[in-house]
Amino acid sequence: MNIAVPIQAPKPAAGHIARVHDGTGMPVVFIPGFLETTDIWSSLLRRTRPFLPECHALSLPGHPPWVPEPDDHLTDDWANTIAETLEDLGPKGVRLVGHSTGGLVALEIARLRPDLVKDVLLIGALHAGDVGGHKTWTHAAAEMPWIGPFLLSAALKAWLRSEESFRAGLASSMADRAGLFDVPVDMREMMRSACPRTLHALLQWMSHRDGADLSDISAPVASVIGTRDAVISPHHQIDTLRLLGNSSATLVPTGHLPFLERPDLFDPLFLGWLSRRTPN
């Protein structure tokens, strides 16, 4: 089994961002998806380490190592607050890589701060909270303002109950389950400290995204789309590109986690994106 690259938890003052690789060049910020920790990127970082610039990983609200304040809740401008934190990473801007919900967050930051975000790489990303009308239990939880956090808490406990249930949950999103061997073993333990109330607030924020403002994004957006993705349909992901002005896509025969399922296909795509000249 591969050994995961350790990712240190950021201090609260760092805006829930951790440096994961020292290098030169414009910083790249990796944003994981819903119910993922920043460790999800470990195997990709390990495999491509010789070619990486300075890299950071951002934890989503409610996800470890997110450090909640007393009476923690998600304000309407939380994405803008995170963008302000990213300003400290590089005077010339940053590049964003977002998986699933992390892709939605990356697009929101790019929309809010065109001066800061130079380009975006989406992986299995959504652009609207309803995911093209494909309702899941997470959307049902978002629509229940009082009982939603309790449903999330119960679902998390069931998923994290054992190593087998944890891996079974991840496997359901994969077309090639060989990628399970690259899932960091620490992710299950870290997710035990997730905050259901803040996770619910994040779901509610997602539920209000409809993609109507994607045309405001000026940064180039590239997308890697798994043709066998059962979580975010390929059609929904392609619709994202139709709503953007400057975008491109590559289709790969994987499920929702191409960087774990087929490194042989994903890594060259990632390194090709990394080598592109970014706009000034």
UniProtKB/TrEMBL annotation:
Any one GO molecular function term: hydrolase activity
Designated name of the protein: Alpha/beta hydrolase
Top-rank taxon: Bacteria
Keyword Cytoplasm: no
A Pfam family that the UniProt record links to this protein: Abhydrolase_6
Keywords: Hydrolase
Domain AB hydrolase-1 positions: 28-266
